[in-house]
Amino acid sequence: MQFMLLFSRQGKLRLQKWYVPLSDKEKKKITRELVQTVLARKPKMCSFLEWRDLKVVYKRYASLYFCCAIENQDNELITLEIIHRYVELLDKYFGSVCELDIIFNFEKAYFILDEFLLGGEAQDTSKKNVLKAIEQADLLQECCMTDTVSQSFSMV
Amino acid sequence: MSDVVEKTLSALPSLLSLDSQAGAGKLSPSSKLGNLIKGITELTSKHEEETLIKKELESIKEQVASPNTTMRQMKEIMVRAIYCEMLGYQASFSYIHAIKLAQQGSVLEKRVGYLAVSLFLNETDEFLLLLVNTVLKDLQSTNLIEVCMALTVVSQMFPKDMIPAILPVVEEKLTHPKEIIRRKAVLALYKFYLIAPNQVQHIHSKFRKALCDKDPGVMTASLHIYLQLIKENPESYKDLTGSMVTILRQVVGGKLPLDFNYHSVPAPWLQIQLLRILAYLGKEDQGTSEMMYDVLEESLRRAEMNHNITYAILFECVKTIYTVHPKSQLLEKAAECIGNFVLSPKINLKYLGLKALTYVVQQDANLALPHQMTIIECLDHSDVIIKRETLELLFRITNAQNVTVIVEKMLEFLRLTCDDYSTIDLVGKVAELTMNSVFSLGGDVMQPDIPNNFLRLLAEGVDNVEDRQLRLFAVDSYVSLLQGETAKLPQRFLQVISWVLGEYSYLREEESDPGSVMRLLARLLDQRHTSTETRSWVLGAMTKLCSSPVSVALARDVCERYLYSGSLNTVLRQKAQELMILSQDTKLRARVLPAEGRLESPEVDSSLSFLDGYVSDALAAGAAPYKSPHQRQEDLVQEKALSLEPYGLSLPVSLSSCSITDRRSPTLLSMSSGLSGNSTELSHQEGSTTLKLEGVKRVWGKDGYLAQQQSAGETPTPLVELPSPLLSPQSPPSQKPSSGLEPDQEKRQLASSLFVGLGSHNSVCLVRLPSTVWLFIKNCQSANQSNVVKSLFKPFYINSCQSKNHGSFVKVSGIFAARKSCQTDDSCCFPPQISCISGSPLKEVKGHSVSVCLHTVVMKRASVQVELAGLLSYQRPLGQPQAAQFSLSLSLKHFLRPLTVSTGDYGKMWLSFSHDLKQNLRLVTTEHQEPLTATLDALKGKLHLHVVDIIGSEGIVACRLLQGPGQGQPCLLHCRVHADSLAVWLRSPVPELPDSLLYHCQKALTET
């Protein structure tokens, strides 16, 4: 996979992950063009786009578009399922996820994505494993907070 | 510590769920990020957003610089910086702090630091060097999470040169007790392999260990590396085939833990990865392929659930089956599977079906046959992506017989598309098709409109970068073709090459020496197999290229040979002479070949008025007055009452004294080069472009004689089109459906033309052709326009309307070509404005034959435009009578002819006409002529008016309208230049004529 973009129906970028090195300028150009192209497509049209020399696979969930760019010989349908699996993971983590969750907790969305896709390849296809890894890290957060709280108490 | 964490994790599941919900708290409006986001959503304009973000960035900058900011605050600040970057605002000042956060923060803060780094920086960024030590430290940490984070960041981005520094530590992780660490380490190594393959060469044995890992996740991860390795060098990994097959069998058989199921399909990602690896291993290797037949069959069989994920596996499986050494049984099943895809109502599956077909037809074009109708439907699909994939598919099944239709379809698509990328891609394909298959297969017998279309496409494009690229592409590919063996290239193709090189070689001049193209062309001239016609094209191209000193020298050399070594062909001598003169005269060269003017199309004076002086001199010297070919023909007919040699091509003088700078598309060129009234050349014309008339001759019996006589006076171009339906069963390209048409019929027709040549002897075609009757309607207009109207009627095709000025009448002729014998008779119904004064009835048309009928029509009441509608009824020997309607629009100017009167007669007529009209028109301005002369010439050229006289700023013009037998009704125009406009006063005895004529005058002048 070359990159993944999440954007809203209004064309606002919600998340971007690039697996190929590109300059900021190129990234912005690609994002702008792709968002335009995808938003212009009608709902009954197919989820795949031939775009420049890439293949773009996109799917809309509620108000959010999930959009992946893959190479030509890659399997489009499985990419569609990668998107779906990512949405499932978000859903499970946030508990019936909505766009607002992703807006306000985008760093969490990134963590989940990193745990699921590494360097553009699906690293773990077991939902349980991904969530376990995330929760482990989250739990640590709680522990640390308790630590600091107790520390401040002891200081008092 | 990680163990502790894990214990807590398993012990407190309830707490966990609470935690994660707390962590996912819908909003944290009190936080600064929350405020920022809320603030932004409330804004209405981009400008306001800019102001707000600028303010935010200022405050972030202040805080990160402050020594009092704790790492915890820094973490929160970093999240805000990421947000600003996502909105498109640079926060580069924070990059260094992101690295600092990753270095110094606690585990959690580190996590955000790493995230920020991976979002902000690029593989090539120098900042990353600062991160190397941190990564190294974290990799060696005892904290599982820190190690995970470090591995995550290295597999996303790591400076290539620094890989050796951390490689040993990452390698070590391959034996880590935790599978998550092993898995990430494998993926990190995969990444290293991609960016620096040499550095990980020594650990290939460790990859094998990863492949055999007891954890399926680690094994899956190692397949990424193997896919890459095997793709690059399948030979070295043949021994792995057995293991891969075993793994796939286990996966398909459901031996993996249920965790890895996705929608109850076992590890689909893993399956697809394995199928891809097997494809590489089994490609062109029978032995290896035989090992995998069983498991491939099992994969096909197991994947039966109706879910996207199973289709994904099926698709990959089909691809593998068609890549490895073929096994007929499997191929059959795979083909069936593709069929299901193609027929699926789900658009995504349909797309993949087309894609799979595209892939497989390269091996067996017959596979497309069962899906003809679907493909035709997809060709008109509302989704461009589907359309394009269909074209791609057609591109793969192109052969000599269907290439016309496919190229037409592609051109059609090109006209609609506006996406640059796909345009370039597709045009490349069109070019390739035109170049390779058409020209080398169909070569000399092909209809001229394919190369012409292609060249028009090249020539007409707007002058932007894409078009330049396309032209350059054409030039480059042709140059490389010429550098190779040219003996086998068809003559027509060589002609196309010459034209393209002549026109567009300047595009590549910057990068190569200007003489190279010239030399190639010269070489072409030297070869024996090059025909005379081609030679004249080549000389034409050389003339255009003759600008640099090198080329001039070369040209002179060539010319000398032609002029002095005694070429007998006058045309070649003529062209060589022209080139010679050009090469000797620098000033002339500069004028004729302006460097900038290449893209402007020149004005062509079709009335040849610049020759008037010459003609009058010749007449004065006693030369016979010019007779039009038609007149000559009639003279001929009068002499020999029943000439049975109507095909002694008598030709009109075309406008082509082939001016050197004529940059029109070669539709004209190709004709004119053959028609320039030169007898030597004519014989060639007959040999190369001309028509196969054998089939036509036979059916033109006594009744068709009239038709013969008349059409003999026409340009041969319309005739060229006649035999096409007879010679090949394909339908004329790009018919447009019209009302009352059964769409199915049309699609079948199209299908038959698209898939012709596939399968053995066409008999495999599942769709049988209905017997078809063709109707060509020609109408007659002015000499140089060929207005092609295409419409489709069930089951008739009005193929083209070619036109020709015939002196006294407008003639409409229908030509009926039957593919099965049937009875026809036609009845043109003429609306009140037109009347038919003569017509020939239609007779029985035998199978595969042509019948011609002609009608002469005149305009009863003058009007701007008239519709000619007709009904053709016909009957097959054993069928019901059927009828088809057609229509044709004719404009007033088709019915206008010049009226030759003296100034005195003009004056008398003027006074006697009652209907008049006055109007100001715009003046045409040109460099060389008076505005009045220029304007009148323009009118004369476009509307066939006769300029009686021009005196000072006034001019008188006359014409007549064909209204019945005889001379027709006159209309007189009196024109006077008044300020910047032309005051026109029209008079005629016909009430509507001045008004209608004025309309056409206005139109003609606006177009000029």
Automatic annotation (TrEMBL), chain A:
Instruction: Give the AP complex mu/sigma subunit domain ranges.
Output: 1-140
* InterPro entries assigned to the protein according to its UniProt record, in alphabetical order: AP1_sigma (IPR044733), AP_complex_ssu (IPR016635), AP_mu_sigma_su (IPR022775), Clathrin_sm-chain_CS (IPR000804), Longin-like_dom_sf (IPR011012)
The record gives the membrane topology as: Peripheral membrane protein
Keyword Membrane tagged: yes
User: What SUPFAM superfamilies does the entry give?
Assistant: SNARE-like (SSF64356)
Q: Name one GO cellular component term.
A: AP-1 adaptor complex
Keywords associated with the record: Coated pit, Cytoplasmic vesicle, Golgi apparatus, Membrane, Protein transport, Transport
Q: Per its UniProt record, what Pfam families does this chain match? A: Clat_adaptor_s (PF01217)
Gene3D superfamilies documented for this protein: 3.30.450.60
Any GO BP: intracellular protein transport
Which superkingdom heads the taxonomic lineage of this protein's source? Answer: Eukaryota
A GO molecular function annotation here is: clathrin adaptor activity
Per UniProt, subcellular location reads as: Cytoplasmic vesicle membrane; Golgi apparatus; Membrane, Clathrin-coated pit
Matching PANTHER family:
ADAPTOR COMPLEXES SMALL SUBUNIT FAMILY
Family membership: Belongs to the adaptor complexes small subunit family.
Subunit description: Adaptor protein complex 1 (AP-1) is a heterotetramer composed of two large adaptins (gamma-type subunit AP1G1 and beta-type subunit AP1B1), a medium adaptin (mu-type subunit AP1M1 or AP1M2) and a small adaptin (sigma-type subunit AP1S1 or AP1S2 or AP1S3). Binds to MUC1.
Q: What does this protein do?
A: Subunit of clathrin-associated adaptor protein complex 1 that plays a role in protein sorting in the late-Golgi/trans-Golgi network (TGN) and/or endosomes. The AP complexes mediate both the recruitment of clathrin to membranes and the recognition of sorting signals within the cytosolic tails of transmembrane cargo molecules.
Q: What is this protein called?
A: AP complex subunit sigma
Organism of derivation: Oncorhynchus kisutch
TrEMBL record, chain B:
Query: Source organism's superkingdom?
Result: Eukaryota
Instruction: Please list the GO biological process terms of this entry.
Output: intracellular protein transport; vesicle-mediated transport
Keyword Nucleotide-binding: yes or no? no
Q: Where is the AP-4 complex subunit epsilon-1 C-terminal domain?
A: 897-1006
Q: What is its main location?
A: membrane
Region (Disordered) location: 710-744
| InterPro entries the UniProt entry points to | Adaptor_Complx_Large_Subunit, AP4_complex_esu, AP4E1_C, ARM-like, ARM-type_fold, Clathrin/coatomer_adapt-like_N
Q: Which family does it belong to?
A: Belongs to the adaptor complexes large subunit family.
Subunit info here reads:
Adaptor protein complex 4 (AP-4) is a heterotetramer composed of two large adaptins, a medium adaptin and a small adaptin.
Q: What does this protein do?
A: Subunit of novel type of clathrin- or non-clathrin-associated protein coat involved in targeting proteins from the trans-Golgi network (TGN) to the endosomal-lysosomal system.
Question: Which protein are we looking at?
Answer: AP-4 complex subunit epsilon
